[in-house]
Amino acid sequence: MKIFEEIESEVQSYARSFPRVFNKAQGEFLYDEEGNQYLDFLAGAGTLNYGHNNPVFKEKLLEYIHEDGITHGLDLHTKAKGEFLESFNEKILKPRNLEYVMQFTGPTGTNAVEAALKLARNIKGRENIIAFTNGFHGVSLGSLSATGNSHHRGAAGVSLSGTSRMPYDGYLGDHIDTTIYLDKVLTDSSSGIDKPAAVIVETVQGEGGINAASFEWLRNLEKICRKHDVLLIVDDIQAGCGRTGTYFSFEEAGIYPDIITMSKSLGGYGLPFAVVLIRPELDHWKPGEHNGTFRGNNFAFVTAKAAIDHYWADNQFSEQVKTKGEYVSRRLNTIVDQYGDGNFTTRGRGMFQGINCVNGELAEKITRSAFKQGLIIETSGADDQVVKLLCPLIISEENLTRGIDIIENTIREVCAKEDSIPAQKKYFNVKRLAS
Fold it and tell me: Among candidates 27, 264, 303, 246, which has minimal Cα distance to 136?
């Protein structure tokens, strides 16, 4: 560990929570140098939906490398890129009656968000972007301006402008539809909110605390965007690629975003890869107007195509993920019913769920104890109060059960040592507001 302490920057974060030297990974498992096995419920923060070193992808990638396939191709036309585009179009877009063109950006999610915001502003000729409370879209300056987290925003070093914040679904209480408020401020010329070029939204807010927007709320949001001539951008970087049970997280809501940002598990193997999906009539870019050196990762094209061909050629994998998600829901609901003095709640949908422990210190005790029992799992939310389940989608039922058993055991042990469990503060009294 000495070399990391001497040379690596203090900015490191996950390494502080999981202080081991890891050197091997397969499927849903990580292994440290001493050979200890850990069940991975972090999965590269959602980058490894198909597990570590997926053998299907590995075989295709090694085959490509042995044939001296192109590694780095800028935006040149390559065989690997063409085959990926063909698979994505035939197996993802067409079966869902979706039509998009694909922009290859720099290699990470924030690169895709930056490009999407820039394009939206150019199309509409407006600067303002509507983002939501607890949203997370990246930490480069444009994306950070749309991110709510004060910890990340505070590191910017400059003022973050060009966005207006609106309350996400449920932020003002379960019985208040916050899209009505959005409609009101966009209708009122004296609201102080400049007409935006776009609205950017996560259907499930991962870093913000596993807050899942209802389908009705998402449909209302789309209607308001259409009403006011505002583009709808869905950030599907963490919630996409099957995490909620469907390839795109918005499918079950029946909405049709103007722009979609994708990254993380898109590459399949954990390789850097990010794209922006753009409705064809909105592709206003001029040649070279937005580019990046690493927008042509051909290794990622190979493994991304393998992921689509193997897991998304039919509905079988999607149904498996939904079944596992239903099991997770049942288990987590049972856990919160038994522990937390009625103050714990569940969050999310599909294989993107968590337990709100109200207090960040409590959640940290739970995840720290889980690590000692061989489970890697993180927290999220404004105060890191949500224990966040983000295991690979390919996890076996046996290991999914084992992981949740560890979570339940640690929650039981931690809660037993607490004098009291903090209650969630209620800011809005529905009866009072109604009167």
Answer: 264
